[in-house]
């Protein structure tokens, strides 16, 4: 396992804990969850992937909330990390859940049409 992968796993674990225990923003709490973290090879940037359960409006609000909380999350991360380097956090919505939902809808439509005739 690469050093950046191990580092990303630690960042993921810590951020998930911080978001669960310290973020009280209703735009995130209960509707958004972290799905992964990818850290650059030089450990200076972390792409934090999240998914949102809800409407397009909920997705936009969650994006704004993550952007607003990025500084706080980075400071909390720095306090808990065993490393001197703390990556810059870039939040990216993980669209795989939405993609999977659209595939399910298409399959259901095809199946319904097949059963009708």
Corresponding CATH superfamily = K homology (KH) domain
Q: Whole-number average pLDDT?
A: 90
The major β-sheet equals:
3 strands, mixed
Helix content: 55-70%
Describe the global form.
elongated
Number of domains: 1
Count of helices? 3
Question: Care to give the gist of this entry?
Answer:
A hairpin with a 5-residue loop joins β1 (32-39) and β2. The chain has three helices and three strands, in the order αββαβα.
Description:
It is a single chain. This protein is of the alpha+beta class. It has a single domain (3-116), classed as GMP Synthetase, Chain A, domain 3, CATH 3.30.300.20. 56% of the residues lie in helices and 19% in strands. The protein contains 3 helices and 3 strands. The chain has helices at residues 3-22, 56-80, 96-116, and strands spanning 32-39, 45-52, 88-93. A 3-stranded mixed sheet has the order 1-2-3. α2 (56-80) links the parallel β2 and β3. α1 (3-22) crosses α2 (56-80). The N and C termini lie far apart (52 Å). The model has no long low-confidence stretch (mean pLDDT 90).
